[in-house]
């Protein structure tokens, strides 16, 4: 029997987990699993704010993470997907190459979202990618005492970036501009703690402030005011990778691939999408937010569903729900905001050093899970059926 060709695009948390989990479940003689990624090692995206302030992250080469698993790593950049012909075009060291697949796992994720604000692409820095974090690291290192840094965006990434920079560089004038109130989605306890940390680190919070333009040395707000900014860090959400929108896959308005409860494309049954690339519904029929907390169970669900359909097993049901939001506030402080299944804050929250240690364990656990994707799966790999269940439906 010809090997079933599985191609996984993108080796962030979700793509790497999916590839490893598939390799654990399927007999190596029956499948050829190829993981396509532009970089040779795993990037801990949830730690990029640490990288930006000069901290060194633990190297995690894929050659070690996938040693002995049968997963083939192809170092290349994805340039096109033809979902009708079942092919992927990639650009690697040897030029362009077309790869054919039987099953595709699309996990190209997301990057920063400029929101179309003038000057952002030219003058602002992003920390949604390692190259971006390294560019910001170089720029911050060149700043002299007293110079200003403005973080635009009051979500999780913005809070983490502002506090990390202020803690690492107490000699800088750090500010954060948020469209709403500071931590306005958090519980009373959570909001109070964020304000306390900001005050302790000397961070200025510009609340209910929309930034409408970015210049080399300042940002302009909707009311016409200017805020000095030798460096602007842009953290106003994520934009999905544009390739899916250029295919015949059915996508949402924002370019995310529409999937069913097994992370299978609603228009192309041989394509699965996970992480930020997919529009999946969670409790309360609410779309899952772009986050590692969403992506990991999505990767489990997709890999297990693919394995079940190929081997005639029972389709899995991974709970797609939330438990908490873990926010680092520098290296010595943090906030664990407990939430409902559909991600609404409840009154309970963990703060301080204990929360910082909790967040650190979560980050380490996420990286460990990429290298050890075997939670809840059979110990022995299963054989692929000659005619996989639901192969085309």
Account of the 3D structure:
By secondary structure, the protein is of the alpha/beta class. Helices cover 27% and strands 26% of the residues. It folds into two domains: 4-111 and 238-321, FAD/NAD(P)-binding domain (3-Layer(bba) Sandwich); 115-234, FAD/NAD(P)-binding domain. It is built from nine helices and 22 strands. Strands 5-4-3-2-1-6-18 form a seven-stranded mixed sheet, covered by helices on one side. A five-stranded parallel sheet has the order 8-15-9-10-11. Helix 6 packs parallel to helix 7 (188-201). The longest helix is centred in the last third of the chain and has 20 residues, at 292-311. The model has no long low-confidence stretch (mean pLDDT 95).
